[in-house]
């Protein structure tokens, strides 16, 4: 069995907490508690399914797969490692082409590499949903049984109100596993009619199928997608990564490696951008639905996220940094104190470098503003002040005309690429840990309170040879300080172009 977790997204719906390089499944959205292991929806998804498989006695035979953009590969890997879970395989996309190609690649991968080959059962799940119900295990049991019968299984959620933001699945009133139709996001009037009918369910975007069954159905109903995905799959490179024997994960007492299938960039560009619903589910008759009253949310807006946070006596939800007077029914997220006086029904979200203030019920209109923001400051849509990299992270502390100051943190036994810049000089000051610095081929060992200087044009590399994180302050000086002023000559993470 393969649990295939879909980690796409553009990071726009929950901006400014989510960004292009930190889509919502990886962002720190959830309220923190002393007994919580997790900080992201992706981590919640991993743990939820590990626990469900363990309770079904299916954990030892299960394989965990993540399908994501190549720029998010190391972020997904690091977050899984934080909660001691081993990812068996990654499928890395150069371009997000929606769920039809993603699921096709998962099935093609299983047919070639999985234990059961074409008979492998795949549970395909979004990475950014919240599910809080003990019924989840029972839903999976039913889905696995139907998938073994070569059914393409989808999951319908019993609606609790007339929602216009979800698609709907219509099933037979006498046999809820029998699907009669798929419907896109309805008007409020149509959603009310669906609710009254009693046999329309929210489309959760979760699927379960046998690899061969999905590929057969794609050949029949979406032949061009099937053929192009197969062509891309055949020429794509499979890489094996380091062992994970130190993780206390579901592969207990095994020396685990993961495989990464990097989809061919040039051919991937030609793939159709189409959802599995459009490409297949609306056409196939070989389909079944598992209906459940799971407590489920796709966390598609700050209004829904606010439901996960505790509320005070005035119905204000926050992450403990909100100090209020005569203020009611607000949702406030910030890492610094926020004072509210006489405010009601507001959403206030502090992204560090950008602040969102919205009336409740209006926050989803952020998509109307982002094109203008992209024109004014395109970089702000891509990343936060803190940017994660395979080797660690950097935070922009201060920026002005002709200078930029960063805090750089390098993970133990990691190093940056061998690189050079054409438009800036750099001053490095070691704050904590130790650094091996290479400048024009000469290596120098630096420790805390020591510094060095790299003139523009000189090749250089920063490495952390120690066992604790290396913390460094970098001062850049030059006429142009963009992140694209970098020429990589060698790189441990295959980023040399």
TrEMBL record:
Note the CDD domains from the entry: cupin_PMI_typeII_C, GDP-M1P_Guanylyltransferase
Span of domain MannoseP isomerase/GMP-like beta-helix: 323-373
Q: What class of enzyme is it?
A: transferase
Domain (Nucleotidyl transferase) ranges:
5-308
Ranges in coiled-coil conformation? none
Similarity remark? Belongs to the mannose-6-phosphate isomerase type 2 family.
Tell me where in this chain the Mannose-6-phosphate isomerase type II C-terminal domain is found: 380-491
Keyword Nucleotidyltransferase belongs to the record: yes
Q: What is this protein called?
A: mannose-1-phosphate guanylyltransferase
Q: Which GO terms describe its molecular function?
A: GTP binding; mannose-1-phosphate guanylyltransferase (GTP) activity
Query: What is the source species?
Result: Helicobacter fennelliae MRY12-0050
Which keywords does the record carry?
GTP-binding, Nucleotide-binding, Nucleotidyltransferase, Transferase
Per the UniProt entry, the Enzyme Commission number(s) are: 2.7.7.13
């Amino acid at each position: 069995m393969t649990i295939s977790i879909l980690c796409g997204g553009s990071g726009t719906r929950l901006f400014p907490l989510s960004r292009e390089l930190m889509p919502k499944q990886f962002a720190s959205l959830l309220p923190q508690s002393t007994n919580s292991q997790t900080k992201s929806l992706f981590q919640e998804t991993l743990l939820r399914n590990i626990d469900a498989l363990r309770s079904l006695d299916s954990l030892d035979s299960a394989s965990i797969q993540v399908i994501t953009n190549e720029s998010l590969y190391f972020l997904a890997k690091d977050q899984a490692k934080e909660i001691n879970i081993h990812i068996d395989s990654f499928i890395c996309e150069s371009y997000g082409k929606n769920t039809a190609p993603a699921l096709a690649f998962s099935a093609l991968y299983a047919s070639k590499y999985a234990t059961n080959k074409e008979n492998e059962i795949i549970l395909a799940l979004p990475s950014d949903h919240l599910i809080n119900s003990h019924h989840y295990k029972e839903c999976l049991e039913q889905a696995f049984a139907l998938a073994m019968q070569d059914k393409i299984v989808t999951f319908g959620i019993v609606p609790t109100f007339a929602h216009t933001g979800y698609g709907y699945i219509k099933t037979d009133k006498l046999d809820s596993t029998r699907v009669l139709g798929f419907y896109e996001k309805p008007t409020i009037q149509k959603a009310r009619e669906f609710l009254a009918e009693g046999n329309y369910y929210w489309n959760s975007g979760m699927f379960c199928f046998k690899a061969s069954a999905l590929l057969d159905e794609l050949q029949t109903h979406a032949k061009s997608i099937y053929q192009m995905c197969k062509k891309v799959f055949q020429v794509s490179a499979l890489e094996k990564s380091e062992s994970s024997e130190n993780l206390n994960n579901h592969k207990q007492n095994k020396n685990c490696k993961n495989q990464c299938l990097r989809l061919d960039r040039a051919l991937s560009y030609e793939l159709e951008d189409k959802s599995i619903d459009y490409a297949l589910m609306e056409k196939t008759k070989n389909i079944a639905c598992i209906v459940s009253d799971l407590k489920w949310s796709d966390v598609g807006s700050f209004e829904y996220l606010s439901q996960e946070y505790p509320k005070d006596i005035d119905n204000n939800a926050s992450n403990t940094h909100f100090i209020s007077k005569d203020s009611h029914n607000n949702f406030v997220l910030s890492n610094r104190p926020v004072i509210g006086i006489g405010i009601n029904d507001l959403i206030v979200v502090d992204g560090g470098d950008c602040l969102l203030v919205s009336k409740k019920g209006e926050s989803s209109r952020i998509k109307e503003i982002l094109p203008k923001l992209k024109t004014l400051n395109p970089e702000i849509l891509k990343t936060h002040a803190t940017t994660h990299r395979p080797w660690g992270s950097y935070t922009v502390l201060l920026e002005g005309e002709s200078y930029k100051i960063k805090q750089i943190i390098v993970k133990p036994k990691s190093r940056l690429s061998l690189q050079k810049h054409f438009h800036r000089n750099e001053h490095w000051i070691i704050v904590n840990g130790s650094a091996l610095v290479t400048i024009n081929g000469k290596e120098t060992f630096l420790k805390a309170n020591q510094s060095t200087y790299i003139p523009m044009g000189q090749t250089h590399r920063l490495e952390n040879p120690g066992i604790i994180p290396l913390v460094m302050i970098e001062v850049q000086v030059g006429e142009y300080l963009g992140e694209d002023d970098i020429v990589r000559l060698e790189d441990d993470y295959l980023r040399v172009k």
